[in-house]
Amino acid sequence: MKKFKKIGATVVSALAISTMLVACGGGEGASGGDGEGLDTRLVTIGTGGSSGPYNIIGSSLANIYSDEYGVNSKSQATGASVENINLIKEGKIEMAFVMSDVLTEAVEGTGNFSEKVDNVAQVATLYPNFVQIVTTEDSGIESIEDLVGKRVAVGDQNSGVEVNARNLLAGHDISYDDITVDYLGYAEAADGLKSGSIDAAFLTSGLPNASVLELAKTIDLKLVSVDSAKIEEIAQDQPYFVALDIPAGTYDNEEAVPTAAIMNALVVNSDLSEEDVYELTKTFFDSLDTLGNAHQAATEISLEAAQEGMVAPVHPGAQKFYDEQ
């Protein structure tokens, strides 16, 4: 106690000010964890519907970035892929989860994009999004061709779900003129199936989808299969489609269900600095266990496969990280 009393008032004041600065995250490049800080003070992550894997994983990742770097990082629920690309184009978000088919359109200036989006860069290839065509056992729908004449939810308008639903239907010579289209997100589509206001729904996401899990508890759920040979045929023109199975037991289904899948991608605004994206990329991969605990789909992300199937220019910061591995 005597030693403490000998400390001068000036030193005490300096210590107090220093403590306040640390507590408030003061100073440019302050870090809330072990990170070195970032040039940017904002890391807004565009995701998708509130119940989907994008939003669940994105929210967990935003919390990690906030803790690690002391930045204002948050997830933003959106209409998913197309909206996320446009938000990056407009400089309104820094990072986003998107489907590779939409990202391909963006960098090529096709489909939903009238011109090339030149400020989007890829960080990683993530996990596959499975096309889950959901109906009821008594609907009479056995195949994708049976959707003709039915009322079908195809995802939010211009979402990644809607884009791949439209492309997959077109690959089976089915257009929107052949079905009654409802633009519904995951939760709304599930409600429509429960109420009987729609006959089937596309809920494309990682596995499992929370809305489908809930739906399986209330209706006699049926997953519609998509022939793998047909998917391989479609993939000749649209190579982001791959044939995969929804594993048995995912939704109490006794057998695996063949369907189409599209790889997801993590993208950033290319205007972010090389060092910032290097740090964000490193922390992303260092946090895969935490992200996997947030949602099972993230357990399928791996550093080994992260550079496979890239469809957009890789950000130099992400490339720097990969070059060090």
Give the structural class.
Answer: alpha/beta
Q: How many β strands by DSSP?
A: 11
Tally of helical runs: 12
The coarse overall form would be globular
Distance between the termini: 52 Å
Q: How confident is the prediction overall: mean pLDDT?
A: 89
Largest sheet: 6 strands, mixed
Low-confidence stretches: 1-35
Determine the fraction of residues in helical runs and give it as a percent range. Answer: 25-40%
Order of helices and strands: HHEHEHEHEEEHEHEHEHEEHHH
Percentage of β-strand residues: 15-25%
Radius of gyration: 23 Å
Summarize the structure in short.
The protein is of the alpha/beta class and 325 residues long. The chain contains twelve helices and eleven strands.
Structural overview:
- By secondary structure, this protein is an alpha/beta fold.
- It is globular.
- It has helices at residues 2-5, 9-23, 53-69, 81-89, 100-108, 160-171, 186-195, 210-216, 228-234, 274-286, 288-294, 316-324; strands at residues 42-46, 72-76, 95-99, 120-130, 133-136, 151-153, 180-182, 200-202, 221-224, 241-246, 257-269.
- The N and C termini lie far apart (52 Å).
- Helix 6 (160-171) links the parallel strand 6 (151-153) and strand 7.
- Helix 3 crosses helix 11 (288-294), helix 7 (186-195) runs parallel beside helix 8 (210-216) and helix 10 (274-286) crosses helix 12.
- Helix content is 37%, strand content 19%.
- Strands 1, 2, 3, 4, 10 and 11 form a six-stranded mixed sheet that branches. A five-stranded mixed sheet has the order 7-6-8-5-9.
- It contains twelve helices and eleven strands.
